[in-house]
Amino acid sequence: MDLDGNRILLGMTPEQRQDFERDGFLVLPGFFKGEELERLLAAVEDVAGRVRAAKGLTDQDHFAVRNALAHHEAILDLIDHRRVLPLVVDAIGWNIQIRTSHLDYRPPYPEHIQAGEVGVGKGADHAAGYRNLVWHADLCGPYLFEAPSFDGHVPFMEIKVGYFLSDVTQPNSGAIRLVPGSYRRKPAELREMGGRVPDDQVLELNVEPGTALLWRTATWHCVTPNLGPLTRKVIYVGYHYRWLRPTDYVRQDPKLVDASSPIRRQLLGELATGGDLMGSDPLWEPASQQWIPFNWDDVPLKAWAEARAREQLAGREQGEEAR
Ligand SMILES: O=C(O)CCC(=O)C(=O)O
Predict the structure, then answer these.
(1) Of all atoms in ligand 1, which is nearest to the CA of residue 221?
(2) Would the N or C end of the chain have less CB density within 10 A of its end CB?
(3) Helices 85-92 and 300-322, interaxial angle, to 10°?
(4) Is the pTM of this model over 0.70?
(5) Pocket residues: Cβ below 6 A from ligand 1
(6) What pLDDT digit, counting tens, does each position of 278-316 carry?
(7) Could you give all domains of the chain from N- to C-terminal order, each with its CATH number?
(8) Closest ligand 1 atom, residue 217 Cα
């Protein structure tokens, strides 16, 4: 915040921030190109080969990998990518860690499988195990997180960055569908609508490889079947507050943590300085440092964000003086 209480943006333009507030997401075409995109695609194929070997799958089979960051360095490098982090902090702040990172690998449907109605979850494809996710908002549902809802709305708990690495420009090629602005609607409304959303409220993200999507995961979304000729390849990285519990891990592999930078250690759910997660007196006065740390150096994204905000302010002031 500046002295007038205005949010200082670290990566987003004011227009992007407005779009994000209005729609619940930002689409960033051409986010990865050239070598960066090639590296991610090679990583996906490398992981895919290992998954197939481990699970006895064929190259026609679809699968998802969770805690994907632990399976390839190129995926790990996404979590604090220099162009991603400022956007993430603008969206959700610095008091964060990774909840989940996942890879979705979805070859074209075999000819004999008929797609059911998109977003509804009934059809031969669902019966055959194809995961064309139905319309939903994340972190809510009949058994999950409804207690802390405010007046039936989903509190702001998480954002994800999606990286669409394959061509999903054609309708029904495995693209995500979104309902702009729906993070402000109650999940109960979606249920009352029978889990169907009228077409005029829906945006299907038919995007080129290398597009990124920064989004509040309370935005209603579903996935189309892959009726095209190409394999759908998407990676998502989800960031939530440090005081929530991740889904992909209790603690990440110590080798991975030890080899990580302080900011990366924070994002992996650890204290950047390597201290005890339960504080300095874990036996008699345990105090989760994922709530309020004794030492803010344990949460280095705070200082990182503040330093960047100061730079932005100084730049603004210099600009004003030059006028
Ligand atoms: O695979 C996708 O595009 C969407 C995945 C999804 O529903 C989610 O991340 O919650």
Answers:
(1) 7
(2) C
(3) 100
(4) yes
(5) 104, 133, 138, 160, 176, 217, 221, 223, 234, 236
(6) 999 999 999 999 999 999 999 999 999 999 999 988 887
(7) 14-255 (2.60.120.620)
(8) 10
